[in-house]
Amino acid sequence: MRIIELNETSKKNILENLLKRSPNQYEAYANIVDQIIKDVRNNGDKALFSYTKEFDKADINEANIKVTEEEIKKAYQQVDNKLLEILRKAKKSIEEYHTKQKQNSWFDASKEGIILGQKVTPIEKVGVYVPGGKAAYLSTVLMDVIPAKVAGVDRIVMVTPPDTKGEVYAGTLVAASEAGVTEIYKVGGAQAIAALAFGTKSIPKVDKIVGPGNIYVALAKKAVYGHVSIDSIAGPSEILILADETANPRYVAADLLSQAEHDELASSILVTTSRKLAEEVSTEINKFLESLSRRDIIKKSLDNYGYLLLAKNMDEAIEVTNEIASEHLEIMTKDPFMDMTRIKNAGAIFIGEYSSEPLGDYMAGPNHTLPTNGTAKFFSPLSVDDFIKKSSIISYTKEALEKVHKDIEAFALSEGLSAHANSIAVRFDENYSN
Amino acid sequence: MRIIELNETSKKNILENLLKRSPNQYEAYANIVDQIIKDVRNNGDKALFSYTKEFDKADINEANIKVTEEEIKKAYQQVDNKLLEILRKAKKSIEEYHTKQKQNSWFDASKEGIILGQKVTPIEKVGVYVPGGKAAYLSTVLMDVIPAKVAGVDRIVMVTPPDTKGEVYAGTLVAASEAGVTEIYKVGGAQAIAALAFGTKSIPKVDKIVGPGNIYVALAKKAVYGHVSIDSIAGPSEILILADETANPRYVAADLLSQAEHDELASSILVTTSRKLAEEVSTEINKFLESLSRRDIIKKSLDNYGYLLLAKNMDEAIEVTNEIASEHLEIMTKDPFMDMTRIKNAGAIFIGEYSSEPLGDYMAGPNHTLPTNGTAKFFSPLSVDDFIKKSSIISYTKEALEKVHKDIEAFALSEGLSAHANSIAVRFDENYSN
To answer: For B390-410, what is each residue's pLDDT tens digit?
Structure first.
């Protein structure tokens, strides 16, 4: 893996290179996606079934689009019991963590005659997209569904593309069932997102759509944003490890590799103050590499988006860490908790040498749906907050309003809004007429 | 104003008619907006200045784009002292309310050797769009800036279009200064949004863009979403009043009118169980109308998007209220607090007959930037939460990881990810090699 010294030029080049991975770079596909959305919006199920035939090579119709109880039962028979047990452990810790995120409604009644507050209400209907294909997404199902359940979402509608036999991967069905989802439809891609956003005869319209997908799914989510809400536009995965000379190069190497195996666009970066560590990590990576099943993907990912970056000191190391704003950040330094206090931008922060990133993927409890590609500067991990919305509460008595009514009227008139002033004034002057 | 009895058909027609007001209906302008964004992205200031010349008829360049301290001083001389006093009162209550929204970082250390948590960090750089033109937006400035300040945003960059003389409305500058904004640029429209999203020589790139604007601004915000975050896509304003026979028809009429004066696309709706109330409200509206300065706008708004809706009973009234999901909801019923508990979807809820909507626009404290056009089903009022983001915190000791390491490895292998399994295993087996 290449070792690069940080300076203004190398930093700029690296940041630009990393952004090439963004779904924002694929706007060329936007036209196709817009066409699919329009078609589903206008022609409903007909368009949906026809795209499923075209893209997934599956015959789906009104009668078989919804996963049946029998199919779920059958799926359970196909899933290893040991795995089911682990899935249930994972579910438990994900539930525990997310329950702590629950916000209460609150009110403030500290002023006589005035109640102000914030009412928290779950979103009523949520769509969860689960990718299909050969890969398994058991953990994704848990991570997307459990926060919605904890928030109190009434109706969770899952969509996932079928295989050519019109079947859904057994693991997905079992994970969905364990998470409490009962409504699953065999449809994927941009057409599934369009169906969730606008509704068809078979698929109910939802209020928000969450879940990862390919570039068509990502662009479709962006296109329907505003009609419905979405979680975020997911990009390829990434890790940044911030380490000093105290870090174990073998652990660093193994963790960089684990991220690189996701896909060729994944990015694995070490930022360190120690050249010795960088060199040892490079050696360890080569030692591991040949024995890993996904080494071809890993090699491409490391060649294109992998870096061992040398910083002059910890200040510079932390600065570039904040600029990259990585989805996953591991801190393996002398004093990792104190260094964490200087981190402004990261999706999830793994502290200390035993907090390896895959711990967060499956088992620890915090959500693994995280902001990618620098968006940790402004986006957050998927959370219970994504499945609620707030309403402000305002209540004044006559006496309380009377104290401010002249101010409000004057403010309204200053903005040229006489009907606003009127609506306050009529409450204090029986004969008021602006 | 028309009185309509609620039934499935009338409800469907009304909901469809209201959606015609959505910015989502104006996708025809999207191409122009995309072109402007591309141009600013590629040509920076040059494009920015040229669009400002074209659309705002103002000569803006590197030397005069930034508002100077002298200009702010001059603005103070033009603003009425009484108004300034009211502005400061409003600022105080807005600050008080939003301070209550502040979320703490938290951690859970209840299990030996495990720390899980959620770190809250302010977004670093935020852009605030303030519309220009003849209307004044003093309250908008306060509502957009104060939550960002409370959240701890480091750098707030305001943009607002200049008049033909290259000047910015004095009220906007004074409100900005009172709210603590020191960096204001004279640029508006889609070109301003593009500049904030990608940066130009004169305008810094920000992480998030908030604030209302015309259709070009709304579409530009949607287009740059993903590159940066945005607050929401604002549509025209609306009010729904839920009232029974106990409501004062004069107050109901005045409040419906106050919303209708915003613009021709504004919507004012009464949902009531009392035909008598609906008829009296209609009469009162006609009485007020002729004396209001913006009656032409009001008439068009009421004709196109105003309704007095008759529900058979409170259940039906509340159901349609939740389906419309209004930006502003006033409840004027016998027991308005209890009826509030049944409201699922609304931006701000005004309870009781003295909680007139303009109270919330200026003075009460809760934010007046609210989800419009049915988006209260999934969006929330602008809040301190819009200006922070969260990072998950995960830290395990060796002993804690050891208890789950076999489960994580098995789960990873079940998803076909051997490098994930490897990264955990190497920590427990010196010679591990997958």
So the answer is: 999 999 999 999 999 999 999
